[in-house]
């Protein structure tokens, strides 16, 4: 299997296990909400992504490891909520503005940090912040060609 | 049409193709969209476009880690509804991995776009 470049690892899994076991009601509720809103759901090992529809005017696709933590699903669910709030504008909308793209990622990571805070898990919070930094750099450089931090 | 798209319409096709080698992912997405629009009226760009798409596939730039820019470019070509574009997409897909072909088919299905399959060549 080709290794996809993912936005981060599921650090919460190691300590809290699969979300479908640790938070079964919330897990089902989030998936149900996305599915009934037209999100296509695909379970794929080691992938954690909500991708808006390419063209827009429709919900996107959730690709997620069926054993991912509740924190990872909350992150992707946050992307879905924003995409829905934006009225499913399509990928061009997110790619036309760095702040738009990074802002969405930032808020999704905040959801994960909230989980770490609720559990008073400093180590998890540190790892999430490292992922945030890595993801921000990837978006700046690979997607928007911004190398200088002052830009 | 956003500012980036507006700027691209002012460039000729050769300039757009050259730009693909130097731009970051977001710009490449819009360049591919523009090239897809031009493909119907400029079929002679086929070879260059194929090279560019395959080169992008090797870069492996994927939005949220899943769909590659080259897959998005092929979708843009299918959306034009042009027969030559359909054939072009079928040819390019041969170079993709089976899982990427499968993923691409699911993306096309979501947009009600048909993906042509080329018959295997016999000796």
Largest contact between protein chains? A-B, 33 and 29 residues
Question: What is the share of helical residues of chain A?
Answer: 55-70%
Task: List the secondary-structure elements of chain A in sequence, H or E.
Answer: HHHEEEHHHH
Q: What is the strand content of chain B?
A: under 5%
Biggest β-sheet description of chain B: 2 strands, antiparallel
Describe this structure in words.
The complex is a heterodimer of chains A (151) and B (123). Chain A has 151 residues and is mainly α. Chain A has a three-stranded mixed β-sheet with strand order 1-3-2, covered by helices on one side. Chain A is built from seven helices and three strands, in the order H-H-H-E-E-E-H-H-H-H. Residues 1-7 of chain A have low confidence and may be disordered. Chain B has helices at residues 3-9, 13-20, 25-39, 46-59, 69-79, 83-93, 98-110; strands at residues 62-63, 67-68. In chain B, strand 1 (62-63) and strand 2 form a beta hairpin. The longest helix of chain B has 15 residues, at 25-39. Classes of the chains: A mainly alpha (151), B mainly alpha (123). Chain A binds chain B through residues 1-2, 4-7, 40, 42, 47-51, 53-55, 58, 61, 63, 79, 91-92, 94-96, 98, 101, 141-146, and chain B through 2-4, 23-27, 29-30, 33, 60-67, 72, 75, 79, 97, 99-100, 106-107, 110-111.
């Amino acid at each position: 299997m080709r290794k996809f470049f993912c936005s981060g690892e599921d650090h919460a899994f190691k300590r809290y296990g699969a979300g479908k076991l640790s938070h079964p009601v919330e897990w089902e509720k989030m998936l149900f909400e996305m599915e009934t809103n037209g999100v296509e759901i695909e379970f794929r090992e080691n992938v954690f992504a909500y991708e808006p529809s390419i063209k827009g005017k429709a919900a996107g696709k959730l690709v997620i490891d069926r054993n991912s933590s509740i924190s990872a699903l909350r992150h992707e669910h946050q992307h879905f909520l924003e995409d829905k709030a934006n009225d499913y504008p399509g990928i061009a909308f997110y790619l036309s503005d760095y702040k738009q793209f990074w802002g969405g990622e930032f808020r999704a990571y905040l959801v994960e940090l909230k989980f770490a805070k609720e559990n008073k898990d400093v180590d998890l919070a540190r790892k999430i912040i490292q992922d945030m930094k890595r993801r921000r750099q990837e978006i700046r450089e690979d997607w928007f060609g911004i190398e200088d931090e002052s830009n | 049409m956003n500012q980036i798209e507006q700027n691209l319409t002012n460039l000729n096709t050769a300039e757009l193709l050259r730009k693909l080698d130097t731009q970051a992912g977001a710009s490449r997405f819009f360049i591919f969209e523009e090239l897809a629009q031009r493909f119907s009226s400029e079929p002679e760009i086929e070879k260059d476009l194929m090279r560019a798409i395959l080169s992008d596939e090797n870069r492996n730039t994927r939005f949220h880690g899943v769909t590659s820019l080259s897959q998005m470019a092929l979708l843009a070509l299918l959306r034009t509804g042009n027969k030559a574009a359909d054939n072009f997409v079928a040819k390019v897909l041969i170079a993709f991995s089976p899982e990427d072909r499968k993923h691409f088919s699911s993306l096309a299905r979501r947009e009600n776009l048909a993906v042509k399959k080329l018959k295997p060549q016999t000796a």
